[in-house]
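Technical annex B. To support the medicinal chemistry partners, we prepared a structural model of the target in complex with adenosine monophosphate, based solely on the information shown next.
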Amino acid sequence: MKVLVIGSGGREHALTWKLAQSPRITRMWVAPGNAGTREERLSGSGDPVENVSLAADDLPGLLDWSRIHQPDFIVVGPDNPLALGIVDRFREAGFRIWGPNQKAARFESSKAFSQEFMQRHGIPTARAASFTDPAQARRFCDELQGQCAVKADGLALGKGVVVTSDPASAHRAVDEMLVRGAFGNAGSHIVIQERLHGREVSLHALTDGSCYRLFPTSQDHKRIQDGDQGPNTGGMGTYSPAPFLSDEELSRVGAAILDPWLRGCRAEGIDFRGLIYPGVMLTVDGPRVIEFNARFGDPETQVYLTRLENDLLDLLEACVEGTLGQHALRWSPNASVCVVAASAGYPGTSPKGKPIEGLAGAARLPGVKVFHAGTALQDGRVVTNGGRVLGVTATAGTLAEARDRAYEAVATIAFDGMQYRRDIAAQALQHHAPTA
Ligand code: AMP
Ligand code: GLY
């Protein structure tokens, strides 16, 4: 089978690496991929994965290319092409493509839709309302005494959320979005949620529109600096499993969110086939969904796929075919930790083209897999090509060992301006400490 993966981040490298292990795949491309994806080899034939230089949101280009090369199955990584309706376009053209259609992708592309859906279907979430009028929005901020999360409705590269703790800063966030148009169209409609407190966990579930299969827990670290300081990023590191929910609690929380979600989708004629990723805050009053994403998390994918024992191609095909009910997910009992190495300046603008040293040495360490994100090949050398550069991932029998190995690998890698958090999974280890 010939497979095309769309995207270029760490998530897509992890998807490519895992799919390449499927013995059924005879040829594989990634558009546009990165310096890591083109290093992967198909386990069946030993042939290399090929990068195709087309951007993930170049829908006409990808469609033309696919008409020539005829991939049998297409996997979409990022949110943007999903929001643009890539799945609808490719299905109409007769391709088998994995991911939610445009209507279903609204769970991520419109926070107002998502919030109102949760309220309609009794999914536990924050107190919230959506606004286009700044005066009404400010009044709601005052009702919440400034304890708010002010969110642009549309996709804003993970930057469209401002969490505030006083009315003046909440008003400023409202004005930035609704009056000054800081996020353009994405912010002409906003959602304001009450500010919640608690631990944040990432849930992932594959779904074929009639059933879902929940993944184990993972936790991301969204702020740039240790101790959750500094601005939000796309995610600076993850680990799985997260110790804050037992297996029993996880399935209870999963059901409390996903059972009404799936029923709601059916009732509203939303045929979601893909991966649904609720961001959940574990508050003293119980779990609350703060957002939905309609794709695999990045860098959650890196820790999940290094633990997944199934053939990923089987599962993704089952989502598209509506046969997911025939599959059970199998997970390695090992823990996995991913530490993101980012460029200087990230999450602001960062330089490109800095040579990366030490990749080969890191790859030789046991249990370590270095997933590339913003990398490119320049004159035969791997160089930086974006904000998040690498996801250094390690698996081992315990979380502590996995963490040590991941940091051992990070220490062997260097590029000019490299920054990373030193405390990925640290809270989880402290959480274990009293019972250890
Ligand atoms: P989102 O993109 O909606 O997940 O928001 C980005 C980040 O803002 C989340 O990862 C949280 O850390 C924070 N956040 C979002 N909503 C809330 C909320 N209602 N209360 C507190 N923090 C929030
Ligand atoms: N890990 C955060 C995200 O994928 O949105």
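Notes passed to the chemistry partners:
The domain at 199-432 is CATH 3.30.470.20 (D-amino Acid Aminotransferase; Chain A, domain 1).
The longest helix spans residues 247-267.
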